[in-house]
Design a protein that fits this description.
globular; 4 strands; two-stranded antiparallel ribbon; 137 residues; alpha+beta; Rossmann fold
Length: 137
């Protein structure tokens, strides 16, 4: 089963525990969204919404986040902030991040590894430098 947030950490109950609430608070503070915690999701900016979604994912797992076009529709400055946030989570918290992105320039700047897909087939697995300048496939 797949869950966002902490409720999946204890499927025997539909209520949040004190630990769940503390995890959520700490995660919101880490991502800089604690001050917007009482706002309606629909009223948030695109960047704030993405941070909320990343926070929900972090509450569900401490090891890996899977993202599909996390900066789609965001202005370039906010997209950069999201990529930097994800880099910090990877480097400081040792969280693996698997991301699908059509933003090749940013993906190459922030990625450790790149998998190029075309028509559902893997065409290349490499480091960003090798993707740009060639190298073994």
């Amino acid at each position: 089963m797949f869950y966002l947030g902490t409720i999946g950490n204890h499927p025997e109950s539909i209520f949040y525990t004190k630990e769940d609430k503390e995890t959520a608070k700490n995660t919101m503070e880490k991502l800089g969204i604690y001050e917007i915690r009482k706002k309606c999701f629909a009223d948030l900016s695109g960047g704030q919404q993405q941070r909320v979604l990343v926070a929900r994912s972090l509450c569900a797992t401490k090891n890996i986040i899977i993202l599909d076009e996390p900066t789609n529709g965001l202005d370039p400055m906010i997209a950069k902030q999201i990529y930097e946030l994800l880099r910090d989570l990877r480097e400081k918290d040792n969280i693996a991040i698997l991301m699908v992105s059509h933003d090749i320039d940013r993906a190459l700047k922030y990625a450790d590894n790149v998998i190029e897909l075309r028509n559902g087939e893997i065409k290349k697995i490499c480091k960003p430098h090798d993707f740009i300048f060639g190298g073994d496939e």
